[in-house]
What we know:
Residues 54-194, 229-409, 423-597, 627-754 form the TNase-like domain. The protein is elongated, with a radius of gyration of 46 Å. The strands form eleven sheets. The chain has a five-stranded mixed barrel with strand order 1-2-3-6-5. The chain has a five-stranded mixed beta barrel with strand order 9-10-11-14-13. The chain is α+β, with helices and mostly antiparallel strands.
Amino acid sequence: MCVxxxxxxxxxxxxxxSFVDLVxxxxxxxxxxxxTSCYADLAxxxxxxxxxxxxxxxxxxxxxxxxxxxxxxNTKAEIPPEKTITLSSLMAPKxxxxxxxxxxxxxxxxxxxxxxLCIGKEVTFRVDYxxxxxxxxxxxVFLGDKNVALLVVAGGWAKVRDQGQQKGEASxxxxxxxxxxxxxxxxxxxxxxxxxxxxxxxxxxxxxxAVSDPGNFDAMAxxxxxxxxxxxxxxxxxxxxxxxxxxxxxxFQYVQVFVAGIQAPSAGRRAAAESAIxxxxxxxxxxxxxxxxxxxxxxxAQRLAASSASANEVPADPFGKEAxxxxxxxxxxxxxxxxxxxxxxxxxxxxxxxxxxxxxxKDLSLELIEHGLAKYVDWSASLLEDEARRRLKNAExxxxxxxxxxxxxxxxxxxxxxxxxxxxxxxxxxxxxxxDCIVVADDxxxxxxxxxxxxxxxxxxxxxxxxxxxxxxxxxxxxxxAKEFLRTRLIGRQVNVSMxxxxxxxxxxxxxxxxxxxxxxxxDFGTVFLANPSKDGDDAAAAANQTNGVNxxxxxxxxGFATTVRHRDFEERSNYYDALLSAxxxxxSGKKGMHSAKDPPTRHMTDLLTANAKxxxxxxxxxxxxxxxxxxxxxxxxxxxxxxxxxxATCSIALSLSGxxxxxxxxxxxxxxxxFMRRKIMQRDVEIxxxxxxxxxxxxxxxxxxxxxxxxxxxxxxxxxxxxxxxLDRIPEAHLLVQAEQSAKQKKLKIWENYVxxxxxxxxxxxxxxxxxxxxxxxxxxxxxxxxxxxxxADQKVAAIQKQLSSLSLQEAxxxxxxxxxxxxxxLAQFSADKSWNRAMIVNAPRGAVQSANxxxxxxxxxxxxxxxxxxxxxxxxxxxxxxxPGLAQLCSLAFVKVPGLADDYGQxxxxxLSEHLLSTPKEFRAIIEEKDTSGxxxxxxxxxxxxxxxLIDSEAETSINAVMLQEGLGRLEKRRRWEPKDMQQAMDExxxxxxEAREKRLGMWEYGDIASDDDEAPPLRKxxxxx
Length: 1028
């Protein structure tokens, strides 16, 4: 009922209701239960009454002196209206102006009292009167139910003006102000302190930087002394959202500080119009006690200055004023902490600014970015710690995604990555492809399923590249160490995989695929956790902090074996990206791995898979002498053939299991045999025993993994067959192999599914009968030693390339100096025999730059196999679109037949006769590929590169050229080996009949009887000088 009575009184006296009464009534209503409609209407009337009396609510934004406040309205506008209110009838001591001078006694203490009392707080105020001559408004301000002016005067921080000069303009509370002033004087409070020396001590000793003389301020010295340490400061001005002018306490150094890591949009620069210039007139009396009745007209100089200033007006950037206001309401005239990070040549400091927010402190830069009012900038962010940079970058990315303020019209760049959701699986690691890519066998898919092996690229990291020996690409530093680090921890271990995103990349180098490109592939990226790490070492320590296990990517980065990818905006990334960046920071500071200043460890390994067969044979005695050796299965080439690394012998070899053969490529169960052995031995530590080496450089021997002969589970699974022609008596544990094969036969597993006791019947394809490739060819060039070049008749690339070449304009000779072909380049060359232009590889070139059109170049025609020397004038540059296609000429040799070279007896006769058979008339032949010899490496000229060992059949006469050369005594059979497959043995049996006929008739090389036996198991050396 007291509330109702108060309201009724208020209804009768509302025009005379004091501000204190209004506040009390409003407070009472806010605490009362819901009112009836009549009392609600009364509340509306009271609000109107408050507006009619001039009382307004607002929040104190700034306090410029002991008697002046800037108050902003409580509205929802981005930038609310503001009023600057000077407390009525008060005069506070004046602070020293920026253009030079001293504080009046107690000026700073007076301003600090009012600042700490009101800054950031909600107040109610009213304008009591205005002084147009100085464009100021004077009023009363209440903080809650307390009159601020009364509190200031009671503390002795301002005096009450002499009323004789005010012409009737005074505070409504003048009597209370005078009474409190007299009490303060009596008590000696504030400016009324009469203690000797108190007035002098209350004047700040300002450094030159605080009075517009920054020349003596040594910013570099301050940074050197205080870098990284928090400095107490008060913000005096906000030039824009990220540039502050502050007083550094306690010395009052006045400096400009750029907020580190960000840049806010410009707030613009106002022009000094006539009215603005007029307001610059400083009153002669304090607090607006001016006796000037009016303003004098502007002089010509003032008008000229106004015109110049107006011309220099700079408009604000979009959201520049909003950013400035955002910063002002948080730090202007407030206590902040500044951590200095750097300084520029103009003595402007760069630092992190922290302002209080309740019990905690907030980072101004992070707040501005989170609200879309500033952008991340590298030039100052580089001064910050990695963690601070990550926070800012992530906040900017989120603001861009939400299109906040300055990012309203932001269009995200095109990205080739796409998020993968809800694809988590467990499995066993079966291969480590590189430091950032592994292959995991998915537990949820059955063995043999093509999708069971999932390639997982580790998210957001990049490991050193392994290189490619076949392309002469060497491994990057630490590439082998990083791969070995993963292999020893992951192979055969259970992992949890969380797929995160996929990315489309180019087929050539793995880089981002250009838009619209068709030559692309999709790579899947995820995070891999090792579920049960070893109990010793850092792995277990890392697992203790992660519920899913050890993050393998984080472990790699922390050891310095990989780096974290710096993603572009809106690119998908690891869900643990921050942890990866932290791990990289630790690796860099600890100088680990690739971040170390030491030279990377070197590892010299001879790759015998890319060497010729003779070099492999040279290693054989050493490998046989060591008997059982420790090794690592680098790759499973087929079910029974593997690439093996032997650290002790510093070499890599191709090892085939003695006496065991799996189905060949394209035959049933071939892929299943490979998948089976990948899970069994891929990249595992094994032991091997080498027996011998075949003519292609593949070693034959036995392998044990965990003391088990790896051929036994292969035979037991019905994925391989024993070859008795190898001679089981020399194979270790041969009886166990026989038992394993017999068990598979009885269970009719895989290749034995149609097995009948006593019959060599399998599932339709003989295990030992290999599927051979056969195609029609044209012979384009004949070399010595039974070698020749062919083109496939059915290859459509021949016509396509010829069409491209015919469309080229090749009349003008190249300009000397503009075209400098070097060894290995693909160019156009004019063939001397028919003056046609063909693609050619530079085999030899003059040293240095081309001097004349007659400089000689040796070229190899990659589409025909010819090689000759041509002058520079007969060469032309070739567009990459034409030169990129591989050469169409394929080097071949007659299978099972050794043809003498030109330097040998009957070598010239053999070369001439072979040319007559192959080149005398244009004809087609059928080529059956018996084997492929890759020991020649890549093509570097005539007679180099991969060699196809073929049986060449004349399509018209249906005769074998291999047999014809033997029949005419111009070649002889290669030496047999007892481990030859049966199909090869049968082919050699057929050819031996023709050799026997030539021997009996004393033809060719058999003219003088049997020739001496040749124990050389390698094919004859290939010479590149042969011509037809």
